[in-house]
Amino acid sequence: MPARSKYLSSGWTRLSKVLAMLFGAYAATAALHIALAKNVTNDVPVLLTSTYSSFLCWVGLMVLVFIIKKAWVSWAVLLGLIGFSSLFIFVT
Amino acid sequence: MKKLRGLGTRTYNALFHTHTVAGIVISFALFVIFYAGAYSFFRHEVEQWENTDMRQPVPESFNYDLALKKVDSVYGGLNYHQNTTIRVPNSESPLMYVYGAIDKTDSTTERMAAYINPTDLSVQDVRDPLTTVNNTIYFLHYFRQIPVIGLYVSGFVALFFLFAIITGLLIHWQNLLTKFYAFIKEGQWKTIWTNAHTVLGVIGLPFQLIYAVTGAFFGLLIIILLPAAAILYEGDQEKLVNKVNPAAALKVDENAKDYEHHQLTALATQINREYPGFEIGSVRMQNYGKEDALAFWNITDHKGILSDGSLAMRLKDGKVLEEYSLIPNERDYSYSVINFITKLHFASFGGYTMRVIYFVLAMITCFMIISGVLIWRTARDHSKYTYKQRLFHHRVTKIYLAICLSMFPAFAIIFLANKLVPLDLDGRVDLVNQIFFLSWLALTILGSFWNNYGKQNRNYLLIGGLLALVVPLANGVITGDWFWQVLLTYPKVAGVDIFWCTAGITSIYLVFRVLKVSDQSNTPVKKDEMLIPPSEIQPEKTFMKRKLTKREMEPELAIISSLDPKK
Question: Which among A7, B52, B66, B297 is least surrounded, fewest beta carbons within 10 Å?
Answer without folding.
Answer: B66
